[in-house]
Automatic annotation (TrEMBL):
Name the record gives this protein: Sel1 repeat family protein
Gene3D superfamilies referenced in this protein's UniProt entry, alphabetically: Tetratricopeptide repeat domain
Keywords on record: Signal
InterPro entries listed in its UniProt record: TPR-like_helical_dom_sf
N-terminal signal peptide: 1-24
Lineage: Bacteria, Pseudomonadati, Pseudomonadota, Gammaproteobacteria, Lysobacterales
Length: 158
């Protein structure tokens, strides 16, 4: 057989091998992304993620009161996961007194984009409280909705 038949597929195969990442060539894209997302230079420009990271660190240390404060800081920047975490802390009375109405209000805000598991959790909260808590929770979202906007003030509810 002629070399002309084998050469093109061989060249294509070799180019494919050379184009792929070398084994041991450093962290993959996911590892690199994680490093960048946790770097101080990145977090200084993303306060929602910075406060969420501080809250998660506080939770790991068993400092629910500090976590509650940091999740509130992140939640005021519109971070939906932090809003849900703050709602959970408030609902369960972790890191401070329980406030189920305010917990519901934060969960309502967290679920406003229709994220399925947040909507489900909001509905669980809605089914649980007493009638007076329900009425209070329905009124609180207006106070909670005043979240930090670029150049704005943070005036969200406790």
């Amino acid at each position: 057989m002629s070399l002309k038949i084998f050469l093109p597929p061989l060249v294509v195969a070799l180019c494919g091998l050379l184009a792929g990442p070398a084994s041991g060539a450093g962290p993959g894209p996911d590892a690199y992304e994680a490093i960048v997302l946790q770097s101080p230079d990145f977090l200084v420009h993303h306060p929602d993620l910075r406060f969420r990271r501080l809250a998660l660190d506080a939770r790991e240390r068993g400092r629910d009161d500090e976590a509650r404060t940091q999740f509130r800081n992140a939640a005021r920047y519109g971070d939906k996961l932090s809003q849900a975490a703050l709602a959970d802390l408030l609902w369960n009375g972790q890191g401070g007194p329980a406030d189920r109405a305010l917990g519901y209000a934060w969960m309502d805000l967290a679920a406003e984009r229709g994220t399925e598991w947040l909507v489900v959790q909001r509905e669980r909260y809605w089914q649980a409280p007493l009638a007076d808590e329900r009425a209070r929770g329905a009124r609180r979202p207006r106070a909670v909705r005043r979240v930090r906007r670029p150049g704005g003030l943070a005036t969200a509810g406790a």
